[in-house]
């Protein structure tokens, strides 16, 4: 870990606070783990209670600082207690209610934003050297840029998915949403000396797209996660295992992932080998389990379990024989996820279990599994190739062990918090140092 004196004073700006329940909160907590508490603070928008184990200085922005957004959300909360409709796989099939929600979201996001005097005074007292933000919306871009300008410090954007390509791509508000997004992205780039991305393919593409340097930083895994794993240990033969081979998925079911999981469930029903039957157990947020339960109702090989806390994840992953990662094949969702690397991929690799990936082969997450030689990827939207790969994994415990060992070794080198966090400190310190030199 870097010397304490090298840590710059970072102000994190975003919708989600540090925490252990959302992908963004987990990634932030892991990347900034060990940061000196007097050199880390956050401005956040959501009412979700933040975690204080990594960051202890917060300024929760009053929702009324964006009055149109505030009253729009209150109206939706009263009129639609179930929240926004689930995204359709085909944009043409979206309901009138879904399209209305998109326009209302755009109105809220593009509404005027006032930086409260209390916030400006708070940021001046804190004296940040760098403003770091995962952005994701026009409102957060305006907030991050406004604070960076007010403090006279560089902005470091961290792109977790390719939302610049997909946000307001359906022409919301007669194209006003898209134009506002593009104008604010230009301001983000103008205030940034360099940026960060969630994957190497994204960093390569964004370097060409925005003409500033980009580095790849993704979720990292605490060193404790690597304890208790014995590489090369011979796994039990599933022929003698009473319950057969256990496939496990842990994550959200949104963004069309439920459809790919259901396809795996259908493939499991068609296994005709002499092996004991295989089963897919799905751990997901409670709301997802309720919302998508009907998609798995006729798939007896799929068991919907429960939501799991961050402290339970590693033990659940290591209880599996095979871990499952899925993404949607729907073209508009592929545009959104193609450069992303899911928060759980480093966790999967560190667990030392083989991975079955099912999604378009060109996605960064699927390519990462292949690069690590940690499992098998089925890049076709068909059941037959899934059946073949599942039978291969079920029938060859040594293959599963090899993939698990490979993933574990790859994660220890590429995804351990000690290695990633040191590089992350150096990256932000370089931005802060360059800014100080330029101010002289």
Automatic annotation (TrEMBL):
GO terms for molecular function: transferase activity. This is Glycosyl transferase family 1. PANTHER family: GLYCOSYLTRANSFERASE. Keywords: Transferase. It comes from Micromonospora peucetia.
């Amino acid at each position: 870990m870097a010397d304490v004196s090298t840590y710059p004073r970072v102000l994190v700006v975003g919708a989600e606070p540090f925490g252990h329940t959302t992908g963004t909160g987990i990634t932030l907590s892991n990347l900034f783990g060990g940061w000196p508490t007097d050199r880390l603070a956050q401005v956040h928008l959501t009412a979700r209670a933040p975690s204080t184990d990594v960051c202890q200085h917060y300024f929760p922005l009053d929702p009324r600082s964006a009055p149109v957004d505030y009253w729009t959300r209150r109206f939706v909360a009263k009129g639609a207690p179930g929240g926004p409709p689930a995204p359709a796989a085909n944009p043409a099939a979206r309901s009138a209610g879904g399209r209305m929600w998109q326009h209302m979201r755009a109105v809220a996001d593009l509404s005027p934003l006032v930086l409260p005097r209390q916030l400006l005074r708070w940021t001046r007292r804190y004296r940040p050297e760098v403003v770091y933000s995962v952005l994701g919306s026009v409102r957060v871009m305006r907030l991050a840029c406004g604070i960076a300008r007010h403090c006279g410090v560089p902005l470091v954007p961290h792109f977790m998915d390719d939302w610049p390509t997909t946000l307001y791509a359906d022409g919301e508000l007669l194209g006003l949403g898209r134009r506002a997004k593009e104008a604010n992205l230009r301001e983000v780039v103008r205030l940034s000396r360099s940026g960060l991305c969630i994957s190497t393919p994204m960093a390569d593409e964004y370097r060409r797209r925005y003409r500033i340097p980009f580095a790849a930083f993704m979720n990292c895994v605490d060193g404790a996660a690597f304890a208790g794993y014995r590489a090369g240990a011979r796994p039990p033969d599933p022929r003698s295992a009473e319950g057969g081979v256990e496939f496990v998925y842990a994550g959200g079911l949104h963004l069309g992932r439920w459809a790919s999981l259901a396809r795996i469930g259908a493939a499991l029903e068609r296994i005709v080998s002499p092996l004991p039957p295989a089963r897919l157990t799905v751990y997901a947020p409670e709301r997802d389990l309720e919302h998508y339960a009907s998609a798995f109702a006729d798939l007896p090989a799929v068991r919907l379990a429960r939501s799991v806390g961050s402290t339970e994840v590693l033990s659940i992953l290591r209880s599996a024989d095979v871990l499952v990662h899925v993404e949607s094949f729907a073209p508009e969702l592929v545009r959104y996820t193609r450069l992303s690397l899911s928060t759980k991929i480093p966790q999967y690799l560190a667990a030392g279990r083989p991975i079955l990936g099912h999604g378009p082969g060109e996605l960064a997450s699927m390519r990462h599994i292949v690069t690590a030689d940690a499992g098998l990827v089925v890049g076709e939207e068909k059941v037959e190739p899934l059946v073949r790969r599942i039978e291969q994994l079920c029938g060859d415990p040594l293959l599963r062990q090899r993939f698990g060992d490979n993933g574990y070794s790859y994660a220890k080198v590429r995804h351990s918090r000690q290695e990633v966090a040191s590089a992350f400190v150096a990256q932000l310190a370089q931005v802060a140092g360059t800014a100080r030199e330029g101010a002289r």
